[in-house]
Hints:
Layout: H1 2-31, E1 40-49, E2 52-60, E3 67-76, E4 79-82, E5 87-90, E6 96-101, E7 113-119, H2 128-134, E8 161-164, E9 168-177
Antiparallel strand pairs: 1-2, 2-6, 3-4, 3-5, 3-7, 7-9, 8-9
Amino acid sequence: MRLFSCIGICLGTALAVLAGGAQGEKRQSLKALWAPTYYIAAEVNDCEPNPNYVAFRGASNLPPGAIISAVVTDFDFDAWKDYSERVFVPVTDQGFFSGKILPKDGMGFRHNLILRLVFGPIYAKQPASVLAVVGRKGENLGGVEPSPIEDIAGRSENPQLFQTSGWYYGLETIARVPHCGEK
């Protein structure tokens, strides 16, 4: 009888430890979020006609202090027509950023514009701590080994990665400005 009692207690203890461990793993996995390469994600969370502004927020796994530029724009044939000047916002230690953009003088924001966000060493002066991680020319943004004679953008699976002349690399994303004061 004592043997069955010990087996029951031992088995019950083991199951409790395993169940607690499984819950601990579940909590751990929620914290251990991971992305295969660097990214920028953003949304417009407010746009008002009077006073006219666009507010945005986003998240990124770029190093803390990375400077992201943002501009409200629209398609203009094969180019962009900017409705604002660029604003520059830093990525926080928690991986978030936010900002507010005013229109250029004589212009106003309207329905269905685009918020364009860009990160790259040539688009804003980046802190030395950021360049140490992403590379002086952004060559570490693609998640592949840089090569002096090969374009990393062509070998990277990162859909936000782009290359400019001088072998500089950056990340770009867009967010729609859905309504500007329209309810």
